[in-house]
């Protein structure tokens, strides 16, 4: 499963084996061996592969069918906008949120999206 998903995502992202190898810090031959299932990536490389392919290790391992790591992409986008640690990514802060507050937050984000589409 891992080898198929690495190959499939690499091609989908229009990366050569050499390009992926450079992002992960291995040789193109190592990537080729992973894709042909001659060898398997170790844990550290699996994490690097997931990052390079904008996915999760869970997806690569077949534990999830979600190909995108949307949260990481959102965090990276916010970081480029100057937000290093937005409060809505504070896991501890979310544990105390009540259902009615979630509805208010959802409505607020919808409002913001509407405002963005108007301007």
Automatic annotation (TrEMBL):
<keyword id="KW-0238">DNA-binding</keyword>
<dbReference type="InterPro" id="IPR010982">
    <property type="entry name" value="Lambda_DNA-bd_dom_sf"/>
</dbReference>
<dbReference type="InterPro" id="IPR001387">
    <property type="entry name" value="Cro/C1-type_HTH"/>
</dbReference>
<feature type="domain" description="HTH cro/C1-type">
    <location>
        <begin position="6"/>
        <end position="60"/>
    </location>
</feature>
<protein>
    <submittedName>
        <fullName>Helix-turn-helix domain-containing protein</fullName>
    </submittedName>
</protein>
<dbReference type="Pfam" id="PF01381">
    <property type="entry name" value="HTH_3"/>
</dbReference>
